């Protein structure tokens, strides 16, 4: 989409018309808080270590800067994470920003049904696999959509409007 002060373009309007379904879930507050703590802590440690860089070897300084920079980026990624599910132009797109994106042609989906997902059974949240369970993409427990594919595989998605998703993929 365009910036707030700009008018929508014809392309933006066309994309909105082609959008059949969209659901967005922001990261739970504990993930945002943890990501913020990691990002701020890593950035603060990086800033605090700059004065002591001259006393370190090049390898030590490089490693320290690399590790703390990665910590800052991972923390920011977790703090701004969201799960977006869209159906547009015959494709279901699942995007767990910024880590994971999967597109599935809707013709590959044979059924969509409502289920309940529990993070405990998957050992956490995110893009998860667990023994004896289909792969799942979720940020919290609760209502989810179970998608069955033509090849016999199954995918579980965190989704509050399962009926709307089912209608959109048909």
Strand content: 35-45%
- Strands, total number: 9
Query: Which blocks of ≥5 consecutive residues have pLDDT under 50?
Result: 1-5
Helix content: 25-40%
Cα-based radius of gyration, to the nearest Å: 20 Å
Spatial separation of the terminal alpha carbons:
26 Å
Category by helix and strand content: alpha+beta
Give me the number of helical elements.
5
The outline comes out as elongated
Q: How confident is the prediction overall: mean pLDDT? A: 88
Walk across the major sheet and give the strand order.
5-8-9-7-6
Sketch the topology as an H/E string, one letter per element: HEHHEEEEHEEEEH
Largest sheet: 5 strands, mixed
List the domain count as a whole number: 2
Summary keywords:
170 residues, 4-stranded antiparallel β-sheet, transmembrane helix, membrane
Task: Outline the structure in words.
The chain crosses the membrane at residues 30-50, 62-85. Keywords: Membrane, Transmembrane, Transmembrane helix. The protein has helices spanning 10-18, 29-49, 58-79, 119-122, 162-169; strands spanning 19-26, 82-88, 91-97, 100-105, 109-117, 126-130, 133-138, 142-149, 154-158. It has 170 residues and is α+β, with helices and mostly antiparallel strands. It has two domains: 29-79; 82-169. The strands form two sheets. It has a five-stranded mixed β-sheet. A four-stranded antiparallel β-sheet has the order 1-2-3-4. The longest helix has 22 residues, at 58-79.
């Amino acid at each position: 989409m365009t910036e707030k002060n700009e008018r929508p373009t014809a392309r933006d309007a066309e994309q909105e018309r082609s959008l059949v379904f969209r659901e967005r879930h922001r990261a739970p507050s504990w993930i945002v808080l943890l990501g913020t703590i990691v990002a701020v802590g890593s950035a603060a440690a990086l800033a605090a270590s700059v004065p002591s860089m001259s006393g370190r070897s090049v390898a030590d300084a490089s490693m320290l800067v690399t590790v703390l920079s990665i910590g800052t980026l991972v923390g920011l990624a977790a703090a701004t994470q969201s799960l977006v599910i869209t159906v547009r132009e015959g494709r279901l797109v699942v995007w767990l920003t910024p880590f994971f994106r999967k597109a599935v042609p809707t013709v590959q989906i044979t059924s969509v049904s409502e289920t309940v997902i529990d993070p405990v059974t998957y050992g956490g949240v995110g893009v998860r696999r667990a023994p004896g369970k289909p792969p799942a993409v979720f940020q919290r427990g609760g209502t989810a959509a179970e998608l069955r594919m033509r090849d016999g595989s199954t995918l579980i998605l965190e989704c509050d409007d399962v009926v709307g998703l089912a209608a959109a993929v048909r």
